[in-house]
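User: two proteins, same treatment. go.

Assistant:
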Amino acid sequence: MGNLIIGQSGGPTAVINSSLAGAIKAATINGVEHIYGMRYGIEGFLQGNIFDLGAYFTNLYDLSLLKRTPAAFLGSCRYKLPAWKDDEATYKKIFDLLEEYKIDKFLYIGGNDSMDTIQQLYDYAVAHGRSERFVGIPKTIDNDLPFTDHTPGYGSAAKFIATSMKEMIQDNESFGAGEPRIAVVEVMGRNAGWLTGATALSKDTDCGGPDLIYLPELPFDEDDFTARVEKILSHKKSIVVAASEGLRLADGTLVCDYGMDASHTDAFGHQQLSGVGRMLANALSYRLGCKSRAIEFSLLQRCATHMTSRTDIDEAYNVGYIAASKILEGETGTMVTIQVDSREPYVAHYEMHDVHGIANVEKKVPLDWITEDGTYVTDEFINYVKPLVIGMIEPHFAAGLPKHLKIK
């Protein structure tokens, strides 16, 4: 039996290390001699940054702590592999390293772009008659991978966002006798509004929820937005708006381009988005003459392991465990998917899907899950996300603060 290597790529999530724990567990009980980790994803791998994970996980407590550790334990990257037909030298280097370490099983935890890495490596292996296997483990708070009901990481991010929204609304309503107070909350979501829509979960008997929710699936109209806020101000003094960072005008221009330098992009050509909340809050202050503030969750959305969903962390562990088990059985060129049989009671199972239909494809919020006026999500959306935020898993504490695992 050959050795196995695993890497993490792209933006971390609160449960990405739970998938790593699941993969390590499955490989261990199946007798894999060496379970290697690549430091900083495929980019680190190309630099020979490889280490033996076995030394770090000698007991169940280590794996338990790993599941509760934020960020990418192995280190991550945003590195785009060139197409193998354009740069065979890079692929020869990768496969030479695999041979050197006697690795024939390659697992990669990530989102759309990371599945592109799995696809490229698999295609090269097939074209050159190689026996190495490549399987993807899904991860992204954006929840935009196709052919899976949802992605590990999304449920915990949604839980944090909805909880924080409830708390902010409560705070914003504290000054009912004073001047009107408007808060524009900026939520991650480049092209898909899954995270922004999750703010609707805050609406309950003890909270009215956000007044307006704007997703990037529909064009944004600033005049209509201002008029709606002004109308709400006629009967309430506290207004909270949820806005996706990826909002665009009807002509496709990013709203955030008016408030930031739009020149920086990552290796996959993705622009770093920020500034929607600030842009809209400033516009409301100027046009309506009232106090408006912008609130940006930023990295907190993906690293708040103190508020992970139990459903999410368990499923993240399961997809890692299944990916390692399947690759040991001969599976290759695929990614683990989550399929939901029932949302109430919540029942799900796992399948494998060809990575070629997943890599570089984004799944957006269905338009019929957005209200006709484009300012909120429907009950279908809320019913979809509700079971994904259920339950919690307590951190391991020391001196009152959570304990985390670090590579020494």
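Protein 2:
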Amino acid sequence: MEARLDKWLWAARIYKTRTIAADACKNGRITINGAQAKPSRTVKAGDEVGVRKPPVTYTFRVKQAIEKRVGAKLLPDVLENITDAAQYELLEMSKISGFVNRARGTGRPTKKDRRALDEFTAPTFMDDDFDFDLDED
């Protein structure tokens, strides 16, 4: 049995909508057995599908070509995740190296918080009280 690539990506719950899956194919983020694929390309059991969601490239082996969306519990019958561990390490490193997040639920910084941050990060050269006038006696 064969299925359209965009339908399979949606049915296997890799993308939330079929439109997003088709756009990913058109933008060159999807490969089948190492070759870029169009949304209408058919997949069959045994194919390896590469999905690039920066910074990680996920790799899945197609076990069953389906075009109807299935429940999350049935996914092991549809695909096998064969993504190598290095990709997951890359994902963790990108999460760690990203900017320091504010505590969850605190919302945007207030004006007072922003001013405090600006004051903290502003470069200081000399005392503001420095007198540039030279006394010539």
